[in-house]
Write a structure and sequence with these properties.
By secondary structure, this protein is of the alpha/beta class. It has eleven helices and eight strands.
Length: 288
């Protein structure tokens, strides 16, 4: 129906993404419309309270900035050898992941780094503000070892929380959900992959995404653990984005892909759908 990939890329992807052309997008919509029924949550659940999304910028410390700049330079040199640019997508993704993990906490890349993390500090300040105003929050990250560092800081400050990741047994999983719903803690820390579906956590009226994922649809599914039937309060979503880093470029990539993604009903760009060349370009540009 849509032809082979090269033809589809020529007819639709490049004109829409590169030129912002409307006619190919409209043509694609006409082709798929008879076969697809799309219902948006806002159309079928009109009784839901409003959802507000906030991009919360995090600025690296001077030491973190120096380390990040050196790491980005090392990775760039590793991927751009005298023989040319690396084309192994798995290798490129692995190096990009190192940059993304550094944005969360330098210790995730350099075990000898200080305990301080600008992102954790920004998160703790946000938690303090929410606590003072009687709010409760779901906290998502894709990195379980980063959540472990967050837990250490919360325990040091005696801030109550529930916790869930992919290794949590099903029976224990439900117990922790029930405990949070019944008011046991002000925060619920959840690994992103473990929290995408099957959880009803309407006791929270705030959602905090500690790091951006490749596919914003996955983040949206996680947000829906709080913004769903049964929620009576407005829900606010905070996304912590580290300034002048690869995290900003991932968010920009989402925006560039969003037009085509909406057309294809996919919800966002996924890392596995990007070429090695597209991934490398995320590292090429020096942060400003």
């Amino acid at each position: 129906m849509l032809g082979d990939f090269s033809d589809f890329n020529r007819r639709f992807v490049k004109p829409i993404e590169r030129d912002g052309a409307e006619s190919p997008e409209q043509q694609l919509q006409r082709v798929i419309k008879p076969y697809v029924l799309r219902r948006l949550k806002r159309d079928v659940l009109q009784e839901l309270p409003p959802l507000t999304e906030v991009a919360h910028e995090v600025e690296l410390s001077r030491d973190e900035t120096v380390r990040y700049t050196l790491l980005r330079k090392q990775i760039h040199e590793k991927l751009f050898t005298s023989w040319g640019k690396r084309e192994n997508k798995l290798q490129v993704l692995a190096e990009i992941t190192r940059l993304r993990r550094f944005c969360c906490h330098p210790r995730l890349v350099f075990p000898d780094a200080d305990l301080e993390s600008s992102k954790i500090q920004a998160f703790l300040e946000l938690v303090e503000e929410l606590s003072e105003n009687g709010h409760r929050a779901l906290v998502f990250s894709q990195f379980v070892d980063f959540l472990a560092l967050v837990r250490e800081q919360l325990e040091e400050r005696r801030i109550s929380y529930e916790y869930l990741d992919g290794s949590t047994p099903q029976a224990e999983r439900q117990k922790r959900v029930d405990a949070f719903q019944n008011g046991s803690a002000s925060l619920f820390l959840i690994s992103l992959k473990a929290g995408g579906f099957g959880l009803n956590l309407t006791a929270a009226d705030y959602v905090i995404h500690l790091d951006p994922w490749w596919n914003p649809a996955v983040e949206s599914q996680a947000t829906d653990r709080a913004h769903r039937i049964g929620q009576e309060r407005p829900v606010t979503v905070y996304r912590l984005i580290t300034k002048n880093t690869i995290e900003e470029k991932i968010v920009e990539l989402h925006a560039k892909k969003r037009s085509l993604a909406r057309t294809l009903l996919d919800g966002g760009a996924q890392a596995e759908k990007l070429s090695a060349d597209e991934l490398v370009r995320l590292i090429e540009e020096t942060p400003t």
